[in-house]
Amino acid sequence: MSNAKTVNRTGVLIRALIILFMGGVVNSAAVFVSPLAAHYGWTVESIAGVATFMALMQTPGHILSGWMMGKFGGKTTLMVGCVLLGLAFFLSSFVPAGSPWMLYVTFSVLQGLGVGFTYTGGTYCATGWYPDKRGLASGLCMAFNGGAATFLAPLIARLIVVMGIKVTLLVVGVAIIVIGLTAAVGLKAAPVGYIPEGWSGEENAAKMEATQLESLKPNQVFKTRAYWHFFLAMGFFPTMYIICYPRFSVLIQDAGFSLSAATIGVSIYSIANVGGRLLMGALIDKIGYRKVYLICGISSVASSVCLMFANSLPMFYIAYILLGIGFGATNCCHPVAMQETFGSQYAGGVFGVCMLGYMLICTFLSPRISSALVASTGDYTASMIYAIVGCIIAVAMYTTIPLPKRRTLAEVEAEENAK
Questions:
Q1: How far is CA 263 from CA 233, 244, 249, 319, in A?
Q2: CA 366 to chain centre
Q3: What is the pLDDT of residues 4-57, one digit of tens each?
Q4: CA–CA separation, 235 and 354 (whole Å)
Q5: Could you say which DSSP state residue 131 is in?
Q6: If we measure between CA atoms, which residue out of 228, 170, 187 comes closest to residue 8?
Q7: Which of 201, 227, 257, 383 is the most exposed place for a label (fewest CB within 10 A)?
Q8: Which of 141, 149, 334, 326 is nearest to 245 (CA)?
Q9: What is the pTM of this model?
Q10: Which residue has better confidence, 362 or 294?
């Protein structure tokens, strides 16, 4: 086992948080796209799928970055991710007025891949150094990434007013590349079997023993039952967010409240999301990721039920808070669950292939089912019931993830030496 005493793991975490914070700019897509469309006079239809296609491209980014981490290490992976993300904005500033379709290449493909690289690379590079506080480290990573838009969106909006959309795209692109590469230079993945100095005690024996098991590669993971638990859970759980969150403003206004009241609700959701990631991340270290997944599921279901029967602003806001905590905190559980189930070395790649469930079920299947239910019934009730059922399925999968058989590092080494 290696203790890697020469590496400052706090420094690695801070560098990763900087990159994850910049990667959170993806949640501010509308701040760029709408002004760019207005600048060129593009129709809504010509760029309607830019954000959706960008989200779709994140899954290939997760998969590729996970593969690169296992082959080339965290530093190279994150440097590539920062360049891709920066180029997405930089090149979008040169898209000609007569070719709005090019935005699908620059803003969608490059940004989707860049976000996938920075999210997976930053999260799994950082949490790999914290087998003793993996939940806390994961919570910090998710809070910085998920909360970035709260700070970046107003700043970017102000820059657009002062400098214009094209110059702002250039500035943001260059800033991401420069800051990202500077942060990535000091990054590296934790060595196999890493145990932090001073980590001991009987209460930590099981976790310490787990660090001395082999890590399964993505192609090995496909053969385990645990993979399909993740596949289904990651596909169904976000359905609650995908269906409910975009409809908060509509439902609040349909209930007779103002647009400003709906806007306040979005801010409340953002605060609950970030706070939930921090609190639930730390809670994982105390009660385990399975119980936290359960708490997230209960919170999400309660959010949907509250929204279905909401007749006052406080009820709507409570629904926002519950969804922010429930959906946001699951992201803290994923890195912990992946590494405890399959090992740390290839966890980024494993996360990527598990995200295929999200891409196929949540991105393709659930929106179509939801739209069909709304069209056939005339309201959102049936769609929300579908979200509740999906959430229950996901929680059942998350809380029963079986641990696959893994050899000890000593057994692996002995087998390699015997060849």
A1: 30, 15, 7, 14
A2: 19
A3: 556 889 999 999 999 999 988 887 777 887 788 888 888 767 777 787 788 888
A4: 9
A5: S
A6: 187
A7: 201
A8: 326
A9: 0.89
A10: 294
Mean pLDDT of 138-165: 89
* Average confidence (pLDDT) over 73-100: 92
Token readout for 283 is 């809670």
Instruction: State both tokens at 81.
Output: 């991710």
Q: Is 191 helix (H, G, I), strand (E, B) or coil?
A: coil
Q: Which residues pair with 408 in a beta bridge?
A: 213
Please give the pLDDT value at position 2: 47
Q: Which tokens hold the place of 11?
A: 């420094």
Which residues share a beta bridge with 213?
A: 408
* Residue 170 identity: L
Number of residues written out for the chain: 419
Q: Looking up tokens 């806007």, which residue turns up?
A: 263
CA dihedral sign of residues 241, 296, 222, 226: negative
d(CA 366, CA 386): 9
pLDDT reading at 182 higher than 70: yes
Q: Return phi, psi of residue 408, to 5°.
A: -75, 160
Element (H, E) at 99: none
Query: Who's near 418: CB < 8 A, 6+ residues apart?
Result: none
Residue 29 has which token pair?
A: 């897509």
Q: Note whether 114 and 88 are within 8 A (CB).
A: yes
Asked if residues 235 and 354 have their Cβ atoms less than 8 Å apart, the reply is: no
Could you report the per-residue pLDDT of 371-382, keeping only the tens digit for each? 899 899 988 889
Q: Is the dihedral of CA 85, 87, 92, 98 positive or negative?
A: negative
**Among the listed residues 243, 284, 224, the one whose alpha carbon sits nearest the alpha carbon of residue 372:** 243
Burial of 311 per CB tally in 10 Å (0-12, 13-18, 19+): exposed
Helical packing angle, 134-163 and 111-127, nearest 10°? 150
Which amino acid, residue 293?
Y
**pLDDT beyond 80 at 228:** yes
In percent, the amount of the chain with pLDDT more than 90 equals: 53
Residue written as token pair 């080339």:
72
What's the rounded Cα separation, in Å, for the pair 234 and 331?
10
Query: DSSP states of 339-390 as a string?
Result: HHHH-STTHHHHHHHHHHHIIIIIIIIHHHHHHHHHHHHSSSHHHHHHHHHH
